[in-house]
Automatic annotation (TrEMBL):
Pfam families recorded: Hist_deacetyl (PF00850)
Protein name: Class II histone deacetylase
InterPro entries (alphabetical): HDACs, His_deacetylse_dom, His_deacetylse_dom_sf, Ureohydrolase_dom_sf
Family per record: Belongs to the histone deacetylase family.
Histone deacetylase domain span: 37-324
SUPFAM superfamilies: Arginase/deacetylase
Signal peptide (residue range): none
Superkingdom, taxonomy of origin: Bacteria
Annotated organism of origin: Pseudogemmobacter lacusdianii
Amino acid sequence: MTTAFYWDERCFWHGGGNYALTLPVGGFVQPMNAGLPESPETKRRLKNLAEVSGLWAEMRTGSAPGARWEELARVHPESYLTRFKSASDAGGGELGLRTPFSPGGFEIAALSAGLAVEALRAVLKGEVANAYALSRPPGHHCLPDWPNGFCLMANIAIAIETARAEGRAARVAVVDWDVHHGNGTEAIFLNNPEVLTISLHQEANYPLDTGQADVRGEGAAKGSNINVPLPPGLGHKGYIAAMERIVLPALHRFQPDVIVVACGYDASAFDPLGRMLATTETFRQMTAQVKAAAQELCAGRLVLVHEGGYSEVHVPFCGHAVLEELTGSAIRAPDPMARTLEARQPNARFDAFAEAWIDELALYFDR
């Protein structure tokens, strides 16, 4: 079986207002030429690089229907969906924090969720070995009734609840390696013991007030939420250590039916919204780690859903490395910045500090 890659040109047409990084322009902030940092170009350039390299031909590629109202309503209340649809039909706007959208934004967000729904469905039906959903707008910050952080609908949560409602999976593990805390996914599943949520994120990046290690789940779901706040400048070795010592043991304890990755690339060393020094090899090796875990634990069932990542230069190479690993292809798109990033990795003293940090967290989560 092959790897499926779900995408749709209409997702690239999602538009926001004029921002300077995460701040709306006006007042003390001068307008920027590029506008919202969550732009279509990082995603389009990833897709284009895969086409040019030849990797595209080795995958099953295509679009999917937008998520239906009843699928969206498994996560988002009718009041939110109605408010979003009305604002979208009226010309766009902003319903939460840093979530601007243009006319038709509701339909594009539903399409973004639909790509994740279909990717998970295809893997669980056994039609493909694994899948990647190039979803845009992203989803892991979106709460049931309040969008934030560029996220308008909770794409992964909608896909999971649809799969569970269809009886295709009972226990689902989410591994979120976006540089920002997956607060929306956490909130949606915080009291659900059948969904394990793990977030590796830069400590106190976004949101400022979530992502603490002591948030472990509620009631019967105690222990089913794992937050791994990481120090800025962690680098490649630190990410791999966190995967080895925290994420993989948690997956083995949980024994999921399928693993879903919230695949953000904003831990990249060149990202304007993160400070983590991850490389293309970081993303390649993390993908190899979850792929091996999926093969051991759940017959290889693995889905990656695109989240953040704001460097138009570097995201395509990071994403291509992930797709190389997913497909098992021999095709490569060498990272032209690799040598520079290798030289900028943390020194041995910082690595020792980071490993001690990770070991302390690992002991905490293993209680």
